[in-house]
Amino acid sequence: MPTLPTCPHPAEARVRVISTSDVHGRFLPRAERQEPSAPMQNGDTEGSLARVAHYVERARAEAGADHVVLLDAGDLLQGTPTAYYANFIEPAATASGLQQPMLAAQIMAAMGYDAAVVGNHDLETGPDVWRRWRQESVCPILGANVIDTSTQRPAFAPYVLIERGGLHVAVIGLITDAVPCWLPQQLWEGLHFGNVVETAQRWLRHVHQTHHPDFTILLLHSGAEGGIDTAEHHENVALALARRTRGADLLLFGHDHQPCIRQVENADGQPIPCANCGSCAMTVVDATLVRRGTDKHVEVRLQDVCGEADAALWQQFADRLARAQQYAATPLATATESLSTRQCYGGPSPVIDLIHRVQLDATGASISLAAPVSYDESFPPGPFRLHDLFRLYPYENFVCRMRLSGDELRRLLEASYDRWIRTMRQPDDDLLRTVGVQGDDSGKRYPAHYVYNLESAAGLDYEVDVRKPAGQRIRIHALSDGSPFSEHAEYAVAMNTFRAAGGGELLTRGAGLHHQELSRRIEWTSQQDIHHLMADFLRRTAHIPLPRLSTWRFVPEAWAQPALQRDLLRLFPADATTNPSQRSHGVCGAQP
């Protein structure tokens, strides 16, 4: 490995590197469901880029503007009504030739971002949006392992060189190669996602041999470890990347929404700090790169940014943000009773039935598969507005119709409920799979698996026997219309495109389908995303909830119902609030 450059350096040089990740459209320093005319209050929301901006400005005042680097580790474009409005509604409503600059790119420019890496949810917005973001961004959008198949060259900049405070910093950007496991090909047509570790090794060698930087940062949109891991795709590889490469001084990563700092030995046995700030712009990584002569080290901390918001940033985009909020306040239907995603964990619920109805209505299928995608959201009686829809379903999936055999359906459901429940051996046993938080003695629990993988079915009449072991719990009696069910028959099944592409591995490890088989099973895919479909459905129905649709239950009820009551009280104690570190199970997490 080439030695550090011998050009003169100050006796001590230090640069602060501040990083966000998985912002998911949290631009506003206020709750999306507030009336647009209400004045901005600093306590309106926990996070947002406006609060990050205030923190960054303070850092620049303390360290000097030339001593701060600002980075983002992916998934910034998508997740709120404001982002959706800016990405899709505002361009469509603007006269040709008068289109306003892209809001996300402008906000990043105003905050002085130096680089960002593309995330899977950035790509989920579709090529029209992510290409525009790449083109209009002042800072480079990185993705060294995202290959344009027509040129065999990176479709995004592989790295950027930044000079600050007398130091030369190289930033190499990479994204998880498991994108094809979640997103339909129409969203990433013409791209190939190369192996993260192999690509990083190649570009680390190039950067050191060509530029001799003082510090090299890996900016990665991939979680710490785990997730999808097959011969073709490896979802969360941050720690493996740190261990298997040499030449990086700091690894900043995101995707799994879990705030952490880890120290890992690299391929040379040297320590490399790895840091993830979590999601929703509530926390940042604040790292300091220090060089004294030829010696260098890195100090890393996580910093909460849920304090004051940057009023200047808010004012700069106030008109556009107000229009987005007006859009978000659009009423869609009237809720005649309280609705809550908490109802989803104990059996059929109005919230899941609504998703099922939208999918069945769009696809014409006879069976629907759906899961809660927001961990804990409640909706009072009264107007159900577009911002409520985004709280209920924050992701821009599409809907498709897929052919599955009865056996594949049953095996998929077995895999889903195995993540959902334990086997009860006596009436006093726990039923739901839950976990606590280390150091939290309150008794509060959280789902042990991402709730978006707790899939249930509509269109089938079935029971889940809580006493049976994994693989033997599901008993399907018939189709909900009374028709006989056969494991040998084929059925048209509605689901979102995340699931149909292999998300959560319920179709692959669960139903036993090879990943390459999935696309061949899809008969139809919607042209509009699920927010469009749900909004249209709600306008037509006018009132929610609708009559009960799902027909399944946990049995025996004498065991299951008391156990559910106990478990739900631990998941949602009356005096508990959601722990931000567990947002991966909620609205800020869901599909990583």
Task: Write structural notes for this entry.
This protein is α/β, with parallel strands linked by helices. It folds into two domains: 16-323, Metallo-dependent phosphatases (Purple Acid Phosphatase, chain A, domain 2); 330-574, 5'-Nucleotidase, C-terminal domain (5'-nucleotidase,  domain 2). It contains 17 helices and 32 strands. The protein has a six-stranded mixed sheet, with helices on one face. The chain has a six-stranded mixed sheet with strand order 7-8-10-13-15-14, covered by helices on one side. The chain has a five-stranded mixed sheet with strand order 26-20-29-23-30, with helices on both faces. Strand 14 and strand 15 (271-276) form a beta hairpin. Helix 2 packs across helix 9 and helix 10 packs across helix 16 (530-541). The longest helix has 16 residues, at 196-211. Residues 1-7, 35-44 and 576-592 have low confidence and may be disordered.
Shape: globular
Specify the structural class.
alpha/beta
Write out the strand line-up for the largest beta sheet, numbering strands in chain order.
Answer: 4-3-2-1-16-17
The main β sheet shows up as: 6 strands, mixed
Low-confidence runs: 1-7, 35-44, 576-592
The CATH topology name of the largest domain reads Purple Acid Phosphatase, chain A, domain 2
Second rung of CATH, namely the architecture of the largest domain: 4-Layer Sandwich
